[in-house]
Amino acid sequence: MPESNGRTSGGRNPETHVIDFRAAEQLLAARDPRGAVKLLDEVIAAHPENTAARLLRARAFFAAAQLRPAELEFSIVLEREPDNAFAHFALARTYERANRPDQARRHFRLAAALDPNPEYLAAARFDDAS
């Protein structure tokens, strides 16, 4: 028999995971990254191949200043989507916050090469000799 929240007592269904994903987006927008991570943990446990959920969880980890888990999630996204400019840019920001400038520069430049977004180009600092 369904519970009052629409979930069956036997477990979660795909629709619930979509709702959790959307709720996690809202939590991240409302500056509750830890709440977003909790929701996304269940989504990713059920759908480990879901790159969008992993990217959102990576952003939530970054917002919560959990740099190592953010790095891991952004790296998984890039293994699956090596041409994802945003993931390169976000991984670069993660490296930058972790005081790893060489790795940050590499991913800033990859992001800018994949997408000439002005923010990516500025961060890439192609005019620097290094």
From TrEMBL:
<feature type="repeat" description="TPR">
    <location>
        <begin position="85"/>
        <end position="118"/>
    </location>
</feature>
<dbReference type="InterPro" id="IPR019734">
    <property type="entry name" value="TPR_rpt"/>
</dbReference>
<dbReference type="InterPro" id="IPR013105">
    <property type="entry name" value="TPR_2"/>
</dbReference>
<protein>
    <submittedName>
        <fullName>Tetratricopeptide repeat protein</fullName>
    </submittedName>
</protein>
<keyword id="KW-0677">Repeat</keyword>
<dbReference type="Pfam" id="PF07719">
    <property type="entry name" value="TPR_2"/>
</dbReference>
<dbReference type="InterPro" id="IPR011990">
    <property type="entry name" value="TPR-like_helical_dom_sf"/>
</dbReference>
<keyword id="KW-0802">TPR repeat</keyword>
<dbReference type="Pfam" id="PF14559">
    <property type="entry name" value="TPR_19"/>
</dbReference>
